[in-house]
Amino acid sequence: MRGSGLRWITAAGLAVVMVVGGPALAAQPGCLERGPPGADVAAIAGPVRAVIAQEMPASGAPGVAYAIVRDGAVVTGGCGVARQGTDRRVTPDTPFLLGSISKSFTAMAVLQLVEAGKVDLDAGVSTYLPAFRGQPGQAITLRQLLSHTSGFSTLQGNQPRKGAGGGEDELKRRVAEMAQWTPARAPGARWAYSNANYLILGAVIEAVSGQSYQAYVEDHILRPLGMDHSFVADGRVHDGMAVGHLPWFGGKRPLDGGKPVRSAAPAGGVVASAGDVARYLAAMMNGRDDVISAGHKALMMRPAGRASPFYGLGWFIDARRGRVSHSGTSPGVETLATMVPADRAAVVVLVNAGGGVGFGETTRLREGVTARALGGAYAGDGGRWGQKALFAGLVLLPVVFLLCMVWAWFHRRALRAKSGPFGLFSLWFPLLTTTAIAVAVLFVIPDLLGVSSATLRMFQPDLALTLTAIAVTGVAWAVFRLLLAYSGRKGRQGGTAP
Q: N or C: which terminus of the chain carries fewer CB neighbours within 10 A?
């Protein structure tokens, strides 16, 4: 009964969602697969292709690229298109914005500087960045930044930029502003994922190396590993990149002209193809001294300490399953990289679509490809009916408030007749409740999600618009009732009110 009720609510909301969101994506082109000579590409890629065929239509993603690493050999694939409405195919060489997978590149760069004797993981950040001297966060160590135990919160890390960006010193200026922040918690006390940590580390890399973050990572990591279809976001749009697609009421909307933010590069701005990420993951697991020492690779892939039992340096750690992974979420792009170091196996999945709430989520696509590529089964996570019902209900709320305004108009005489304490309460209480709802949806809910309202608009514009519509129509209904009730009272007393 409960499941059927959720389906009824979802169906009603879906009717509204589809009217606003438009038609579903057309069928996408097939997959292009590659592998080394002698590899049974069909046997390796077949299970992955089956998951993509099953999950890609529901995700609404225009395209997906993946790469599988097994004992150093790499099989890659690309399916669909780089931009909705075009025939530009996604291939294993198509660059995607990696999002937070980029943090591991920043961690590797810091460890390179450790090996060069230029930084100490347990030194305070103020040792390398003068802007932190005398500030609340001056004693935070590089190790704490790398392991997300600095004390900076998720919300602090997701604050939008202030002022104009641009220029090679954009990161330096942004971090100088951050240096004035007071950490939400004492450094080293608790784990809290925060983009702020890796932006600060990027500024350290620039200050110590004398190069921009972009130049350093390209010169010391991407080029040495042969990642020829990769670069670091520099604030410009590059031809050939997969175009991100934002969720839009059950459909997807292309993010044309979306420029990756230069100063966000250390936390989420490496741009790479699936094939290139496979080279990077293979290097992480090869047990050799190359771009960094084997010892430091192992350090990255084990828990950083008691305050960080499931995060190393730039990687999430699943000790029970022997896995090391990181996901990435950028506006219109979602990614997932997973390693099983003991088996020298890895997989990366790159999707040029952001997931909606319940509708058009990419989670099942990314996790399904990962599971099958690593030889496991994937049963999915259900129909996500709870999330679908939640979003459908939110979409319906503004419609309900508008219908309530119509009802109030036709019952305006009854509203004007209200008197006494109970009558006044029934007139004014809706304004109190709808104002509380407006505060909750505009401020409290984004805060619980660890983002600002501006950030929510960047990643999930349909949800942000829905929440704004709820706040506006709810308060408008309450005010409209009051205007009807009080504007006609004087006229009614004179016998002329309609």
A: N
